[in-house]
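Database export, one record per block. Field names are fixed; values are copied verbatim from the stored entry.
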Amino acid sequence: MDFIVNLISLLLSIRVASADVAFSDVYSSDPLNTPLDYLVENNVVEGYGDGTFKPLNLINRAEFTKMIVEGVIGETPDPDIYHDCFTDVTDDWYAKYVCYAEDQGWIQGYGNGYFKPGDNITKSEAIKILGEAYSWELLSTLPWSEFADNVETEWYYDYILKAEERGILDKLSSYVSPHELISRRQMVNLLYRAMKYEEGYPVSVWEVSGDELSYQEVLDSGLTAAYPSDMSMSVYSQSGWPYGCYGFSVKNVIAWKYGDVLDMSDVADTIEWDGSFIWDTTQFSSFAENYDVDLIMTYYGSAEFFLKKLAAGEPVVLYIPYYIGEDNVGHQVMAYSFDENGVWIADSLYGGIQRQVGFDEVFLDGSAYTTNITDLRKVKDGGEYKVEF
């Protein structure tokens, strides 16, 4: 009898442990854990052999198609049947998945006979494949899209609109960035939400309520940051560029999110920037186009918007005051975390450091709004400078 009890206890402990998947690079405070656990348990995604998940890595077209075919839909195509469907898809590991998806009409590839399996997949491409696999009826009940850059004349409009209707897209911004190259983090959230919707269990997304909440009211709601304050972030020094804080904050965010380290001399030459202060409109636009980034500047971003960005694991460029004598010349930094005492930043001053600033340095009088916040999204084939007020 004792043996049976002990065996049951052992089996239960194994089951509990397996139901709570842990990766060394996904922190316990990160809301990604819930959808990630679900997808791992349902054999949709997996981590790497070193125990990491690498949530910031981008996803290519072949990888995403495999996840849809085998993980989401649950099909294991026969490689003897599904192969050689595109010029660049013959008998590789991904051929059976891509060729099955092509046979089902979920993908068409490019007009020249290529699929480009190694290209990073965009948000709109991923949503289309997902929608086709689930046989979405593209006639939406919504009269229009809430996203200013979901253009009605583009091929992806109806797919994004249908994703909006299903409540699977974040709505912290007025911009969805259809051409954004999605990360494993974004892929996890997208697939989890779509799968739960199909099961009849809609899930919550990140969105702003519209109420004028102070930062304290947002904190009192129980919101926590995805990243701990003591994690190691990308912090490059602006030494030699005394007024180049904005450019170096952009450099820090891009290095963290995408692993791309900008050469600031190259940036200065490319966008015709003299290395001082925040960029002007022409320089913003030039940077977005030349460095393939949707650069979204939000003026007077709400406390709810800002803190939810950090809670969702999205570091941003943030304005804080900086005084030389009695003059506030302003300073731009990368914000990545927060707690009850303030916001944690990667600061390019002082040789490049991580430190905390009080909420009084982040929010204007009334404690509900910031001065400006910049979101950076890597996109395919040239980005845009977009502004929100």
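Remark 1: Residues 2-59+120-198 form one domain.
Remark 2: The chain has two domains: 2-59+120-198, 215-388.
End of record.
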